[in-house]
């Protein structure tokens, strides 16, 4: 059964966020790194550690390093799921949902 929240995330990933895409193109992918990411309820999740771009140079995925000393590796999120809010981003997930996502193993080849 598909949950409404999953439909929302898929819709955001499939939707076009023209204003944000123009901002990202203007500042480049590296301008996204280090920016804070928050949950829909405002909880701080972490910061963007790396941006994965497509052949055209536009961001496709972001790796978000969770906040906290005991946090596991970064989580991969679709770039289009990020909504700009001031100088940070918000994703349509709760902290529990974000924390339950598998960590990306950057050492894997």
TrEMBL record:
- What domain of life is recorded for the organism? Bacteria
- The name of this protein is PRC-barrel domain-containing protein
Please give the InterPro entries that the UniProt record associates with this protein.
Answer: PRC-brl_dom, PRC_barrel-like_sf
Question: What is the scientific name of the source organism?
Answer: Phenylobacterium glaciei
Ranges of residues in domain PRC-barrel: 30-96
Matching Gene3D superfamilies, A to Z?
PRC-barrel domain
* First and last residue of the signal peptide: 1-21
Whether Zinc counts among this entry's keywords is no
């Amino acid at each position: 059964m598909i949950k409404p929240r999953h439909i929302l995330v898929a819709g955001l990933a499939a939707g076009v966020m023209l204003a944000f895409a123009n901002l990202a193109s203007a500042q480049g992918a590296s301008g996204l790194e280090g920016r804070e990411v928050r949950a829909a309820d405002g909880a701080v999740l972490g910061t963007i550690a790396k941006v994965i771009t497509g052949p055209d140079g536009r961001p496709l995925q972001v790796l978000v390093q969770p906040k906290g000393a005991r946090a596991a590796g970064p989580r991969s999120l679709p770039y289009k799921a990020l909504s700009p809010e001031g100088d940070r981003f918000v994703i349509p997930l709760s902290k529990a949902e974000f924390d339950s996502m598998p960590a990306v193993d950057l050492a894997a080849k």
